[in-house]
Amino acid sequence: MLQFFGLVFREYYSKFLQGGFKDTDSIHLVTAFASETKLVLAQTQVNSKDNEITTLPRLLDMINLKGSVVTGDAMYCQKDVCKQLVKAKADYILSLKRNHELLYDDVKLWLDTQFDSGNLPINETVDKDHGRIEVRRLSYAEETVEVNLVN
């Protein structure tokens, strides 16, 4: 597990395992992974009538998350997932995309205001790889902002 300022990072992702002769032979798994130690902490199969979003709560129940920092992609940016992480006394870092329109607009407005006022510096890297230019922008806010994902 990755220790960063005393916090433990755990990643969640889903994967299809293939190897059968038909598409129906593949197994869809959601996995909890400890990044630093490269250990799988828990893994559960996504049932045929479910998806990763509905399967993740089962996986989270398998692990003691207290004091952990849980990371996940935008798919896991769900109110129920956040409620479960807060109840488990875990912190979380989840990607946010435009499919959560109101939350996205609120966060964008706050960030734009901070950038425009010079309160939030931007670190930018530009790389060219695989025939495309990738621009990554990173900012870190010392100020915490209350975002109501849970209620």
Automatic annotation (TrEMBL):
One of its GO terms (biological process) is DNA transposition. Residues 24-121 form the Transposase IS4-like domain. This is Transposase DDE domain protein. It comes from the Bacteria. Pfam families: DDE_Tnp_1. It comes from Psychrobacter pasteurii. PANTHER family: H REPEAT-ASSOCIATED PREDICTED TRANSPOSASE, PROTEIN YBFL-RELATED. One of its GO terms (molecular function) is transposase activity.
